[in-house]
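#dry-run=false #mode=assembly
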Amino acid sequence: MQDRVKFSSQRGLGLALTIPTLVAVFGTVLVPFVNSFWLSLHRRDIGRPHLDGFIGLGNYLKLLQDDRFLNSLEVTVVFSVTSVILELMLGVAIALVLNEKFKGRGFVRGLIILPWAMPSIVNAAMWQWIYNADHGALNALLSQLGLIDGYKVWLANPLTAKSLIILANVWKETPFTVLLVLAALQGIPDDIFDAAKVDGASAWQRFWTVTLRLLTPVIMVAGFLQLLWGFQTFELAYIITGGGPASANELLALRIYTQTFNSLRFGYGASIAYLTGLIILIPSIYYIRAAYRSVVEY
Amino acid sequence: MANHTNFRRMGRQVLLYLAVLIIIFWTVAPYLWLIISSFSYRIDLLQVPLRWIPARVTLDNYYELFFSRGGTNANASLFLRALGNSGVIASSTTLICLLLGVLSAYALSRLKFPGSRVYMVLMLIVQMIPPIAIIIPLYVILRRFELLDTRYGLILVYLSFILPLVVWLMRSYFGAIPSELEDAARIDGCTRLGALFRIILPLSGPGLVSVAVFAFIAAWNEYLYAFVLTTAAAKTLPVLVGEFSTKLGLEYLRIAAAGVLASLPPVILALVFQRFIIRGLTAGAVK
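#status=ok
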C-alpha cells in the first residue's frame, strides 16, 4: 500500500516537473516540424495567393527538376564533406601535438577554444574582411611573401571562393574536434603505448595501430556532428559572397531562405527545408541510438 | 651513440615547438587581425604594402558605434539597442532554460514515472532537427501571435534548441551525484524538491556553471532565427553585424569594431570557464 502511494507521488511529481519543458519543446520544435511538412504539401505564394492550395507532393516533384535546388544540394554536400575531412585531419593532428609535454601547454590548450566561442556571424564578417580584394590581409600576406604578383579578387572565382569559404568554416569548427580528441587521448592509459613500444612498433605504426584505433569512436562522433552542422551552414556563404559567384556557394540554407523570404514561395521553400531536415535526421537515428544506449546502460 | 640520441631528442623538441607555434598562429592570427583593424585608422589599412602593426591606434571605430557624430546618430542608437536586446534575450533564455531544465533533469534522473525514457529520446531527436527545417512555420506562428520582432518571440524560439541540451547535460551531472546524500536528507524530513535545492544543486555547481555558459553562448551567438524573426525593435547584435557587413560595404573598420564587441562576451566566458566547457562538450557529444 505504502509502495503504491510512493509510486504515484513520484509519478505525479515526475510529470509535473517535466511537463513545462515538454510543452516548450512541443510548441517550438515538434509542432513546427509537422507544420513544415503540411506546408510543403501546399502551393503557397504570398505574391500569387489566388493559386494557393493543396498540391500533394507537387513541390517535391518540382524539386527533382529544379536545377538551382540540385546545384544547392551538390554545393552543400561538397562544402560539408570537404569541411569535415579537413576538420578531422587537422583536429586530430592538433590534438596529438597538444597532448605532448611542452611549456605553456595549459595556456595553448585554452586558446584553442577561441574560434569555437566566436559568433559565427563575426567569423563570417572577419573572413570577408580578410579576403577583401583591395585591402584584405590575405592579399597583403601572400604578396609580401612573394607568392602572388598583384592583389587578386579571390571571391570572383568559383573554385577559390568555395575553398576560402571552406577555410573559414574549418578555422571555426576544428577546435571542437581538437577538444573532443584531446579529452579522449587523456583517457588512454600510457601502458598501451609502452607495450607497443616494447613490441618494437615505430611511432608511425603506433599512431596507426594504437592511437587511431582507440580514437575511432570519438572521431566518428565529431565527424558526424560536424557534418550535421555543415549541412545547415547559412551565414558564411550569405555574408562572404551572398552565395556567389553565380550560384557556386549557394548552400541549401541560403536557397531555402531566398525562396521563402525573398521570393515569398512559402510552400516551395518549406519543401526544400523539409527535405534538408530529413537528409540530416535519417543518419541521426544511428547517433541517437548510440547515445540512448549509453544513457540506459548508465 | 649517446650524442646521436640527444641530437634526435633535440630535433624532436624543435619540431614540437615549431608545431605549437604554427597552431597558435593559426588559431589567433585571424582574430588578432580583426582586433588590430578595429583600432586602426582607415587610411593606415589602405596602404600597400600593409603594415601589420599600425604606427598609431584610435578608438574612433568604437566611438562611432556608441555615440552619434554628425548625421550618423541612427547607427549609434541601432547599436545600443541591439546590444541591449542581445543581453536581455541571452540572459532570459539562459535563466528560463536552467529553471525548466533543472526540474526536468531532476525528475529524469531520480524519479520513476511513465514515459521518462521516451522523454530522453525525444530530447535527443529534437536536437537533431535543423532550425532551417522549422523556421518557416515558426515565422508563420510568431506572426499569428504578433510575436515577430519581439524579445519574447525570440526567447521562446531559443528554448527550442537550448532547452533540450540543458536537460540532457544536467541529467548527466545529476546522475553522477550519489543518491545516498539525498536519501539521508529525506529521512530527516526533507521533501524531494527540498533535497533538490538544498543537496543536489549545491553539489552540482560546476555542472550548473557549465550549462549556463553553454546556454548563454548559444543564445548570444545565434544568427539565423534572429535574422529571420526580427526586423527592427528586437534585432540582436549578430543581426546588426550581419547587416553592417552586407550593407555597409566599405565600412570595414566599424564592422570590425562591432564584431570584436559582439564576440567579447562569448570569447571571455569560454576562456574563463574553459574547463567547464570542455567537460560539457565531451558529456554532450559522447554521452
